[in-house]
Here is the input.
Amino acid sequence: MAHGRSCLFLACLVAASLSSTASGFVFKAGGTGEWRVPASAGSGGNGTSAYNAWAERNRFRVGDAIAFTYQAGNDSVLLVDKRAYDACDTSSPIDTFSDGSTVFTFTRSGPYYFISGNKDNCNRNEKLIVVVMAERSAVDNGTSAGLPPSPNGPFPASSPPPPFGIDISPAGNPAPNAAAPKVAGVAGTAALAIGALLYALV
Here is the structure.
């Protein structure tokens, strides 16, 4: 009987850990991943940058990531607030990435502001706003209260992301900005609670 309890408890723990993982998508900044002054860059102003035009055509969700490649020592990626983004203020970023190959994982919904660490490059539209939507749902309950289709893309809400990224699984090494705690999903928590209840009853 004790062996049965142990097996049941172990099975519930495995189910909880498997159901709490969610996969994300790694987007390459601008579609190519290259972080540089856009070829059609103007002299600052209120024009939309090529990076923002790209971001507007994509859907970013919590758990997704964005990859930037650039020449270390000559450029960097700064995570900033809206004020610093608008002013290309490189003096007090929220976070700085300068290794030449940055993968940043989105840990919350809302806007993220990225600028070049080189102020001149930022003034020439090497900057990006990414608006992140809510977390990916592990189970579609059929209520269709999901997100509306992207206004600039042909992909319906149920379509996979466009083909210019890499599908990832969080089972690998965490991204360099792994400040985000791993949070168990609702299904994992429910499985753990049911397992504990069954263990207590048996």
The two ends are 8 Å apart (CA to CA). The mean pLDDT is 72. The helical segments are 2-19, 50-56, 82-87, 119-123, 186-201.
